[in-house]
Design a protein that fits this description.
Length: 387
Amino acid sequence: MQLHEYQAKEILNSSKVPIPDGKVAKSGIEAKEIASSFGGNCVVKAQVHAGGRGKAGGIKLANNPDEASEHADNMIGSFLKTFQSGDTEFPINEVYIEEASSILKEYYLAVTMDFDFKCPVIIFSTEGGMNIEEVAEKYPDKIIKIHVDPLVGPSPYKIRNLISVFKFDKEISSQLYKIINQLYGIFISNDCTLIEINPLALVEGNNLVALDAKITIDDDALFRHKDLLKLFDEAQINKSELNAQKNDLAYIKLSGGEVGCMVNGAGLAMATMDITMKAGALPANFLDVGGSASEERIMEAYNIITSDADVKLILVNLFGGILRCDVAAKGIIEGFKKYNKSVPMVVVLRGTNSEEAKNILKESSMEIYFSDDLPSAAEEINKRLGK
Ligand code: GDP
Ligand code: MN
């Protein structure tokens, strides 16, 4: 689960990581008031679940309260698409008004999980700012990593080593040392998968300040962070994904595909997508209804897939075990009746009550092509899509 910048900064602030003064505004008028309280000079920042806002026009400097209000009015109610967000446009419902900082230098600091090393990793670069992706690609030696033994925490000597490489003066070294430890503490205590401060800015007066903050919480740990769960902004994820989340369906939209997939079990879902691609068609989504889906969940899954305008054909590949095939078939029929949407379907049903399920589906007026196995389903897909 991703947090907004302003929510992430509240967490930083409560752990005493230095941040500039700032407040959220929901309108131009509010933005103006907040900007006035900062003396006019401020930054107006779109609150969306995507990075790369600066380059996309989602970060604007204002020299006075009227300018802040104007930027806020322009942003609120509009959508932001950044180089990190793919095809998705994120709605801007709030802006963060932050007092302006005079930046001397921008650094990059993050804590995340290194799945190759199976432990947390602290990442630091002196080349922070909006081009960090380019730095990582062209000058990987400018990015330094410290792997952390989760049982011990970050070793002081490793952090000091990192700091000494860059020959910071004593004052900044001690600030950086403190911030790295604070971030690591936040990372662990909130079950984060990522905390990223980019830029960690050196501002006038020789102080390090977190100018931007991105925090992602591990979804599987949310059950023990009820307070954080409240921060989730539903508006930032698309309707189908939200619907899937609410119905316990593992759904991921894939761009460029035309075959909607309904499968039970993640392994089977992956194999189904592979076979679909091998047959020359692209899957439009990954959807695992789960091993023990109910009729109602299948009905919602049907709705989610048929709501996707890219889907020209649906491939249903179910293995009846705990989820019986007849239950799945009834769910599909219910979905068809309730949502009144129909897309041609290629269906492979095996396992418990598969014959019964086929009969249920045959009785409906839906356009369905039955296949006995996945390879013949792939041929059927090719035929139906005219490949
Ligand atoms: P991102 O593009 O979504 O990562 O948004 P950031 O919050 O990182 O802002 C992008 C860039 O805007 C930063 O790298 C800074 O260069 C600039 N910026 C942000 N806040 C300030 C500020 O208070 N003063 C100045 N001068 N620049 C800022
Ligand atoms: Mn940033």
